[in-house]
């Protein structure tokens, strides 16, 4: 079953069960993987460094006003000494890629675009409207990579013409070396970012460490909080976990 078909069936199951007072997430924590090869790579041990989180946000340039509110609780939860922040003009493609080599964890709060005509040009929009493309991402060598949180639109949107193939930014992050990725299947609300981020990192940050193996559970808890606040399933369903 293709990834898109699976998600559609999951959504239909939720819609059906919701009227009976139960949902799939009441019984299971969901996690996905693009291929068995990527799963095997995710399970390979990494050279462990002192946990360091790179946060990238462009609240003014991208007109995502809530993205600044999104990164504040992350810094508070993890502590300033464990954070490297690139904001606005500092978030150039080259500086972001260099920082990704130094940091095991990365959180992007920016715009994401899906290029259906050329999926390798799907990208995260950075300073001066430059792009960190899927093609560039797959070429990165990140020996310390642990987890990437892509708080942007369409970061796990594939091509409906080839539903069995994973050609999106989340898969690119896994290919680059990350063991886990939080991504989105379609557009998300800017105002939902702060809640998801705060609840996610509160759950994930334990004893001064970010445990990538708990990421799916942390996202599950964060989405449950959003679900209680949301009026539409379209707000919380797009957030997914990929990897281990």
Proportion of helical residues: 25-40%
Category by helix and strand content: alpha/beta
Number of strands: 11
Stretches where pLDDT is under 50 for at least 5 consecutive residues are 1-6
Query: Any idea of the CATH class?
Result: Alpha Beta
* Reported CATH architecture: 3-Layer(aba) Sandwich
Helical stretch tally: 9
Q: How many strands, which pairing sense, and closed or not: the largest β-sheet?
A: 6 strands, mixed
Mean of residue pLDDT values: 81
Strand content: 15-25%
Oligomer: single chain
Question: What fold name goes in the CATH topology slot?
Answer: Rossmann fold
> What is the helix/strand order?
HHEHEHEEEEHEHEHEEHHE
- The side-by-side strand order for the widest beta sheet comes to 2-1-3-7-8-11
N- to C-terminal separation?
A: 20 Å
Q: Per the principal axes of the C-alpha atoms, what is the gross shape?
A: globular
Q: Over the alpha carbons, how many angstroms does the gyration radius reach?
A: 17 Å
- What is the domain total for the residues? 1
